Fold this protein.
Amino acid sequence: MLKNYFKIAIAVLRRRKFFTFISLFGISFTLTILLVLTAFIDKVVGDTYPDRKRDRSLYVTHLQESGKNAMNSSTLSYYFLSHFVASLKTPVKLGISSGYEGTNTYVNNKKLAVNYKYTNADYWDIMEYDFTEGKAFSKQQIDNADKVAVISEDMKRDYFGDIPSVVGKYIEADNVKYRVIGVVKNVPITSYNLYSDIYLPYTVSKTNFKSDHGYLGGFTAVLLAKSKADVPGMRDEYAAMMRRVPFQSKEYDKMYSRAEPYLQSYVNTGNESMSGVTIVLITIGIFVLLVTVLPTLNLVNINITRIMERSSEIGVRKAFGASSGTLVYQFLVENIILTLLGGLIGVVLSFIAIQVINSFHLIPNLVLSINFTVLGIGLLVCFFFGLLSGVYPAWRMSKLNVVTALKAQ
Amino acid sequence: MMFKHLFKLIWNKKKQNFLLMTEMLFSFLVLFAVFTLLVYYYDNYKKPMGFEYQNVWVVSYNNAYQTKNVDSLNTYYEILRKNIKAMPEVRELSFCSFNTPFTNNMSQGGMTYHQKRFDHINMYTAEDSYPATMNMQVLEGRWFNKTDVATKNKPIVINSDFKEQLFGKGKAVGQLIGNNDDKDKMRVIGVVQSIKMKGDYAPAGLGLYQRTDTGSFRWMGKIMVQVVPDASAAFEGRLYKTLANYMKNSNIEIEHLTNKRTSINYFTLVPMIVLSIVGGFLAINVALGLFGVLWYNINQRRGEIGLRRAVGASGNAVSSQLIYESMILATLSLIVGSFFAVQFPLLNVFDLSAGIYISAMLLAIVFIYLLVFVCSLYPGRQAAAIYPAVALHEE
């Protein structure tokens, strides 16, 4: 039976090439937009390089202090993280790193903009950076304040040029010479808490982080639990710790900071009255709605037109005893075949679009790709589309009166 | 009379027309959104930048010199100033607060004038040499100078946007405005052309400048440096060494405003291009759909059209009837769409001026009419070509 429907569907599609083209154009283009969007989101928040232990980690990125007349929100200080957060029992590791900051270096009369970032030793135990050579700095080296650096592949190429090995060589940044001890694969800047060109031990910083006892500063932390099951306990322990932390000044009467899963921390606005997750969801929701509603309406319109055109066929089938259910079923199948065909074209189009976007290098090191998640979502969207745009026309069709349908021609 | 008849025709096919109208309505709303954004960006774009960024570099430093003594603090930075200025490639420089052009750094506050509160005012702190470094235009009054040290009311300079809000077309110089709780009165001594700090496509916003005082060096972290047009990377390296060797405990970064402008514009341009492409394709999609449906409708109505031709209607009359019909459909959906769109300026949803919404609305309306007109042109022509004898014979 299905095979028959399939044959009919193909015959119908070939009869009115213009309508087929309109339908396919609408479906494939909408799908392309949605696929590129999902590929982007998937890459930005779903890519687990280098923090592969995400499911047993919690991220601390903000602290907000507020009172009647004052509000202050920022990343945290080294003191806060090493004094209060380090006292927690559940985390087995506490990775602390500063946000990346810019400086310059000058090689052969050429200027290089360099982003650097300070980390502690646990950071390297939690993160699984891919080292193309060398290794990370150890606790010993941090305690000795050794001037050593881990650099990214991009930095290696820009600073040293095309040479096989740079471990042991010196790189000058911020007017200081550091010995390169490791080279890691690039992280795109969209993973803004992990990205940098040069990673340095926090002890070599020109600012003495330990002397400053304020709560706000330039650092974030990753808390690693022993197992996935310990994560909720770790979050609660952090919340309990926050209730004990004394206020810095009388100006404030509230203090917020949370250990959050990656996604929440990624979109944290730093403002307690405005949840980043809600904003992102609403924005994406409105965009998707606008992008899908129009082509769906278009499809419904076209589908109705097509059915009316086939009224004589429907009349004949009804006259020979086909029930409304059968006809609706047939039409839905046809429509789903049409949308899947559009989906196929859409996947090809998205593939091309993604190649084009990648070739523009809009964001360095952010290489989009269509993976199975994206493809699965695409097929699901197609199926949904087919049903949505087919149900109403099919219902209209099944309502056709046999006599009028036959007479129409 | 004719319109009444056309309405009847539309009403008779209300089910099918309803879907068409919903489609037009949604396309109107999408276009309205896209055009609002485009008009908003264009509106900002055509306003002057307010300063010359071409040969200005920004030096960022931190944590340079710790001392309790104000005099030695000032001496420390005056020596640095002399060292930089001694370089032949440097024309002018000015220390200033960290909210420099084309960064995301902001420092905002509120002011009170005649019991009216103004919020989101960008607070800048700068030296006497700031306008010369940035090539800013002073529109009224003057910029700060040495005489501003000991005055009863703290002197301030405001930007033209803020002046417009405070005094309209009136005179600004000499007026007193109060701070947050309207206590400390400050005297306006000058008005400068607003600077688009967030790039070409963003509004300048309200701005207020304060003169640096003796303690400002404690917290300032930026130096604006105007260099000669052909300053090379070798010179930049020298400047960098000079700074880094003088401020041993500091992290130094030199950035060019030209590059910073490009990258901040990029963040507005990319979403704009993406939205325009998406909007464009949606419009094509809708156009194709409309075209198909109208075309099909005409084929359905061959009998009716043939009859009209037979009783004496000219080909033009038939095709314009069809075009009128679709235009009426468009008008109906545009009325509903405008009802939604007009809520944006009425409720002041996104803090944009009403003019932007209205121009966007007009653009979207014109666009939809054009789209519908073009889409019904060909089907209308086709209808005009129907021969009554043939069409009536088919029945």
Remarks:
- The mean pLDDT of chain A is 86.
- Chain A has two domains: 2-47+277-407, 62-259.
- The longest strand of chain A covers residues 110-119.
